Amino acid sequence: MADLTLRQALIADPLARSAEVAQAVATDPQLQQLQRQLLLDQARIKQALTLEVPDTLPLKLLRQQMLLSQQTQKKRFAGAIALAASVAFVAGLTLNWFNYGYPGMTLGQHALAHVYHEAPYMDQMLAPQSLDQVNAKLASFGAELSDWQQAIIYANFCDFRGTRSLHLVMQTEHGLATVFVVPASNKLKFEHHFSDETYRGRSLALKTADLVVVSENDADLQQLPAKLEQQLKFI
């Protein structure tokens, strides 16, 4: 299939459900980059068109807190520099709120709150991460990811109610999936399955950490947790 035809086919179906297109993407870095951009654009459009508010109480309160904080900051500051400062303040205030302001929050609800909190900035932070880079961060949890073939496009530490954890974003054949590695010492109530109107999640209790996978795609939750459980080794 010619390069132009492949690109047109990928634009028409960013998930590359055609075996021929999927094989071409797997061997062509430029097509992989195009697919990532198309999937990100698709996710942004879907998010922009989604008007429903999640029915879980913590997430409703989170969004209300963000809105109220933003309104308060806009009244206090004027000008571009002040507005940028207020956005940073709101982000920190909101993060602090869902870390400590809702004592009954479960592990899954906390993971969803993280995903929603970082969604407006995530597309600017995505960048390919080598397995060595990821394992350097996993080492602080006594863990190592071995023989991992899927692209990891974000890896950074985050806070799960005072517990230093690792936030990963992985490129799958179905789109993007978020993975949290949370030390087992966390104080959040464990739950195997959770969901809202947009995302679904699954948690695994491993040797010394809880593994939380969040995605819009059911297929990711059927495949990714098992692969991670097999290939994430604890030293």
The low-pLDDT segments are 77-95
Average of pLDDT: 79
Secondary-structure element order, as H and E?
A: HHHHHHHEEEEEEEHE
Query: What is the CA-CA span between the terminal residues?
Result: 46 Å
Strand arrangement across the biggest beta sheet: 2-3-4-7-6-5
Tally of individual helices: 8
How many runs of DSSP E, i.e. beta strands?
8
Estimate the global geometry from the Cα principal axes: globular
Main beta-sheet annotation: 6 strands, antiparallel
Helix content: 40-55%
Radius of gyration: 19 Å
Percent of sequence in beta strands: 15-25%
The oligomeric state is single chain
**Structural category:** alpha+beta
Q: Tell me the number of structural domains.
A: 2
